[in-house]
């Protein structure tokens, strides 16, 4: 029986329960650390990766899914005549979406497969995936679902606090500007991704900067509390969820108890570039 199926990559922040409930297909990226390559979510868990990263002297590397894997996945999902909406992490962060577009061409199924650049990653990508899956389950058409995704993209927000610049500098994602600030004492930076472009929004020193970051985001949520239904807090930490982030989630619930807040480790792909201690707050308005 044909239907509309949802495809994404493993950088999307989705719980196992969400993936199962909405029958979402996830194509995993891979990570290499200390000479060993692991398939994200298949051969290594998020916690295992962070443990290995904390012990490694070299920056891990990440790889997009092989085109052949995406081709096989598309062929499998469309063999019953179903259409597919594939939502992937921002092009600026990975070549995954280009690989997906190439895979569509190779399968000759461009009439059945619709590829979307989420312009973000993590829970923001997850918001789009979940919206598409819920819309499909509700019987909406492909144009309706794609229009809904675009609407979400226009108001989505990512605020990422990086407290240790080592990984993001080595990864080269910030360009020459990063080299100018790396030697500043105890520097921390806030990254944002407006329209899919990574930029340094603010920089400062120490815990004072982190506290101001939290307050600013809470003020944003307060100002939009009736328009926000979901917030994601994703983090990189070795061990259990930092109490600070659980407290932050509670402050959001105190603003509006109807807001769903998911606090969860980010994927190895994002952890590699964000580094230890980083955390992000993600939401969109309706």
Q: How would you portray this structure in words?
A:
The protein has helices at residues 16-21, 46-55, 67-78, 96-107, 122-137, 142-155, 166-171, 176-181, 206-223, 243-255, 268-274; strands at residues 4-9, 25-27, 30-33, 36-39, 61-63, 83-88, 113-117, 157-162, 187-192, 199-205, 230-235, 260-265, 279-283. The chain is α/β, with parallel strands linked by helices. The protein has two domains: 4-29 and 64-154, Rossmann fold (3-Layer(aba) Sandwich); 157-283, Hypothetical Protein Tm841, Chain: A,domain 3 (2-Layer Sandwich), CATH 3.30.1180. The longest helix has 18 residues, at 206-223. The protein is globular. One of its GO terms (molecular function) is lipid binding. Keywords: Lipid-binding. InterPro entries: DegV, DegV_C, DegV_domain_contain. This is DegV family protein.
- The number of E-state strands comes to 13
Main beta sheet, described? 6 strands, mixed
- Morphology: globular
CATH fold node name of the largest domain: Hypothetical Protein Tm841, Chain: A,domain 3
Summed up, the domain count is 2
Strand content: 15-25%
Helix content: 40-55%
Low-confidence stretches: none
Number of helices: 11
CATH architecture of the largest domain: 2-Layer Sandwich
GO molecular function, one term: lipid binding
Protein name: DegV family protein
Pfam family, one: DegV
Keywords: Lipid-binding
């Amino acid at each position: 029986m044909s239907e509309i199926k949802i495809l994404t990559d493993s950088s999307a922040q989705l719980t196992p329960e969400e993936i199962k409930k909405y029958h979402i297909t996830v194509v995993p990226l891979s990570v290499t650390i200390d000479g060993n390559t692991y398939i994200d979510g298949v051969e290594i868990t998020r916690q295992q990766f962070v443990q290995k990263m904390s012990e490694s002297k070299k920056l891990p590397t990440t790889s997009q899914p092989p085109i052949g894997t995406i081709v096989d996945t598309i062929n499998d999902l469309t063999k019953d005549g179903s259409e597919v909406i594939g939502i992937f992490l921002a092009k600026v962060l990975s070549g995954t979406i280009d690989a997906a577009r190439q895979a569509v061409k190779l399968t000759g199924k461009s009439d059945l497969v619709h590829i979307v650049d989420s312009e973000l990653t993590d829970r923001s990508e997850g918001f789009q995936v979940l919206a598409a899956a819920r819309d499909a389950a509700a019987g909406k058409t492909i144009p309706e679902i794609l229009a809904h995704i675009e609407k979400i993209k226009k108001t989505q927000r990512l605020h990422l606090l990086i407290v240790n610049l080592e990984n993001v500098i080595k990864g080269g994602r910030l360009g020459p500007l990063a080299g100018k600030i790396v030697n500043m004492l105890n520097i921390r930076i806030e990254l944002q991704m407006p329209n899919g472009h990574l930029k340094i929004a603010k920089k400062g020193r120490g815990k004072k900067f982190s506290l101001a970051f939290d307050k600013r985001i809470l003020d944003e949520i307060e100002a939009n509390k009736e328009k926000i239904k979901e917030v994601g807090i994703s983090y990189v930490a070795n061990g259990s969820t930092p109490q600070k982030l659980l407290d932050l989630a509670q402050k959001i619930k105190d603003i509006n108890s109807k807001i769903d807040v998911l606090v969860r480790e980010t994927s190895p792909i994002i952890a590699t570039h964000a580094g230890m201690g980083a955390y992000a707050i993600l939401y969109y308005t309706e």
